[in-house]
Specification:
The protein has about 400 residues and is mainly β. The protein has six helices and 22 strands. It has two domains: about 230 residues, no CATH class; about 110 residues, no CATH class.
Length: about 400
């Protein structure tokens, strides 16, 4: 399930499948809880299965195991200097998206940056879950502004307030950035904009911005479990590296975007199962049922990335459980081999789509609104700061406008 697991994740999945197999049989249903990864019973039960002897062999594919690029509505990005290890990965919640559209092209949560803060850690010893909150910062791109003419200076109004301070960009004709306190001033609480220079008569102004909404939560989480409620449409997978007060950002876009490079391959994972019972005749029936049930699930497992390569019963043995009462246990060895997929993800930096050729000196002194600038330098716009996606700065992923 988790990115940092290989054989461990497959073993836990296999244990769950074996428990389901026993639960399907009326005689063995009460023994479904006796499928474990070690002999950890305080009292030896009537029958059970121990999964052990895990090993794996890597299956060689291409030279660099490159698969392609993943497109998604959601991506996970670090926040400032926080570790950001509490959530292993973020994915789309396909069953929920299918309720909105058969093509899964409608995302139920608005685009923006969702800051996640860990408040308390799970206490497994007491079965107490951890808690986290979500601070949404919805993003609006390309909102047309209605310009109101006034002798004292043109004015406009942002639709959603209060604005997230520092996260506003105005564009003239969709590509020319306007400078705050040079071309315009803004009231962050009310969203009122006053233009400090005379605009062209045919001016079309668009706004990219974030605005503030109340935080949500607290939500509960457990280690090695997923949450699908905090951000509707997204699956937040918590691993086993949660840290107190940790913070990270989940970015939601209005359309699917390329969010990461995907590398992957396959492993062949081998397991030794010890199938035991107090009755020798029952042991054989028990072992045969497990083997045949695993074979019956081969097709279903294959659709989920678990390719069954081999399953076979092995030798039989007996052991004395208690010499005083002479209580025997009978064991049967079953070998099982699965071929499983592995993947790793390398986040992609954001791409800029708005650029303007101008002089940086003229920009700082004259601005852009009146058109009195010298074109001599290619300069990228700051859309990446507002769009809610990570960018590569100094060789590491960061989120510059969330502070």
């Amino acid at each position: 399930m988790m990115m940092s697991w290989l054989t461990n994740a497959t073993k836990h999945r296999l244990i769950g499948e074996l428990r389901a197999i026993l639960n399907d049989h009326p005689r063995y249903r009460s023994d479904s809880g006796n499928v474990v990864n070690k002999f950890s019973f305080k009292e030896r039960p009537q029958r059970g299965i121990v999964v052990s002897g895990t090993s794996a062999d890597r299956v060689g594919l291409s030279a660099n195991d490159y698969i392609g690029r993943l497109t998604s509505f959601v991506m996970l990005t670090p926040y400032q200097n926080w570790p950001g290890t509490s959530i292993e990965w973020v994915r789309e919640n396909f069953p929920l998206l299918e309720q909105y559209s058969a093509r899964r092209d409608i995302f139920p949560s608005p685009p923006g940056a969702y800051l996640i803060e860990i408040r308390t850690l799970p206490d497994r010893a007491r079965s107490v879950p951890g808690t986290f909150i979500v601070k949404p910062h919805p993003t609006v791109n390309g909102e047309p502004l209605l310009i109101l003419s006034d002798p004292a200076g043109a004015e406009a109004q942002i639709s959603n307030i209060p604005l997230y301070e520092g996260a506003l960009r105005l564009w003239l004709y969709g590509r020319r950035p306007l400078l705050q306190d040079v071309d315009y001033s803004v009231d962050w609480a009310s969203g009122a904009i006053t233009f400090l220079k005379t605009l062209p008569s045919d001016a079309v102004i668009e706004a990219d911005y974030r605005y503030v909404v109340p935080e949500r939560g607290p939500y509960q989480f457990d280690l090695e479990k997923a949450n699908v409620d905090a951000i509707p449409g997204a699956v937040l997978a918590f691993g086993d590296r949660a840290q107190d007060c940790d913070k990270m950002v989940v970015v939601v876009t209005d359309t699917r975007a390329e969010v990461c490079e995907v590398f992957g391959g396959k492993f062949e994972v081998h397991f030794d199962l010890t199938v035991f019972s107090r009755d020798s005749e029952d042991r054989e029936k028990f072992s045969d049922y497990v083997v045949s049930s695993v074979l019956n699930r081969k097709l279903a497992w294959g659709f989920e990335g678990l390719e069954l390569l081999d399953v076979a019963p092995g030798g039989e043995s007996e052991e004395i459980y208690n010499a005083e009462i002479d209580d025997y246990y009978y064991d049967s060895a079953v070998s099982l081999t699965l071929r499983v997929d592995w993947e790793s993800y390398v986040p992609l930096p954001i791409q800029n789509f708005r650029i303007e050729q101008t002089s940086q000196t003229e920009e700082q002194t004259k601005g852009f609104a009146d058109g009195s600038f010298v074109i001599d330098l290619l300069r990228t716009g700051d859309l990446m700061d507002v769009a809610g996606a990570s960018t590569t700065i100094g060789g590491r992923m960061t989120f510059p406008r969330m502070r």
